[in-house]
Each structure stands twice: as structure tokens, then as C-alpha cells.
Amino acid sequence: MKEEIRNSLEYIGDFYIDYAGSSKYVGVLKKEVEGVTFYFIDNEEYFEVQSLMETGFTTLKSLFFFSQAALCALPFVDFRPTLFTVMTGRQAWYLYI
Q1: What stretch of H or E contains 81?
Q2: 46 closest CA partner among 12, 20, 10, 14
Q3: Are 70 and 43 spatial neighbours (Cβ–Cβ below 8 Å)?
Q4: How far apart (Å, rounded) are the C-alpha atoms in residues 45 and 25?
Q5: d(Cα 57, Cα 63) in Å, to the nearest integer?
Q6: pLDDT tens, 38-70?
């Protein structure tokens, strides 16, 4: 993520989740662009990558962590979506709530 974008994110808060047998940090940030609010999940252990094309076990661990963290963050940010989209490669799953 570009430094200027990272510096423009608003810190919402943080919490910990039980993941893979230990307590993991979850930071929550947001940015509003043209009336659309984007929420970001922060955890350097799972998201600090050098390449967008990273593959394998690390990517799956990051996806699983993100999925759990995003669901746990919903009450934290007082947000209830009507649609979840999870995309991995060429596949997409949609969950209407």
C-alpha cells in the first residue's frame, strides 16, 4: 500500500482473536472515498507481503485469518452488510445476509 494512502487511513481501534491456537492482533482502519466507506484489517504477520503474486500456504493462512477477523470486526465497527464477497483466484462466493 502506498505510504500516502496508509497515512490517510483513520484508526478505528483494535482487538485480539483466537486464531491457529494463539491470540492474534486485529487492527481496524477506514477510509471514505466519494461517499463509500472502506474498512481495512491490519495485521503485519499475515498481510506484510513483498509480492501480490504470493502463493501457497501463507496465502491460505492470510485468507483464513482475514475471513475470521473481518467477521469478528463487524460488531466492533457497528456495521451490518447485506452482501459478503470473498474472492480467491477465479472463484467467488457470495453470502447474502
Answers
A1: none
A2: 20
A3: no
A4: 9
A5: 10
A6: 888 888 877 766 555 555 556 778 888 888 888
User: What's this model's pTM, rounded to 2 decimal places?
Assistant: 0.69
Q: Which backbone phi and psi does 38 adopt, to 5 degrees?
A: -110, 130
Provide φ and ψ at 68, rounded to 5°.
-70, -45
By the 8 A CB rule, do 84 and 97 touch? Answer: yes
Higher pLDDT, 81 or 56: 81
Report the number of secondary-structure helices (H) and strands (E) in the chain: 3, 5
Q: Which of 1, 42, 11 is nearest to 25 (CA)?
A: 42
